[in-house]
Design brief:
165 residues; mainly alpha; Butyryl-CoA Dehydrogenase, subunit A, domain 3; 9 helices
Amino acid sequence: MLEPALETASLPRTTLAEFYRFALLLTGHIGSAERIMAETLAGVEAELGSFRHANNRHACLAQRIRERCIEKHGNESEEPATPRLLREQAASDRPEILEIEAYIIAQHFHSMPEPERSALALFYLELFSPEEIARLMKMTIEVLGDTLARARGLLQQSLRTLRPV
């Protein structure tokens, strides 16, 4: 769960938890996601306060998190996410997160290429509308649709390879 030190006056704790899930899906690693969140928040705290609208703060934070995750994508030296982490963080109004082990999903997201990985994570976490995701990803809504379709196919194909333990 997010540590109190990661809280910010510009963003409520629930919003930060959603962005942490975004970082975890992009990195596939608990430690990386926590570090990226801490580094990103430390770097943009003053900037976030200058935005009048929450959507602009969210877009700025999502872009910075995505940039840092892409930079760190090749770091495989950390432990993968564990099922315990996201089970504790899963919102009670999202029981579907519990149906499939969250750490498996994070690992499968992490293995997808960009921009499919980021687009699908933003879409499934419902952080932004499709139009906002397209703007954030610097693509048209049509290209976003194609990207999401490819990403869903990749994720479905990857999840089909799972074998029950």
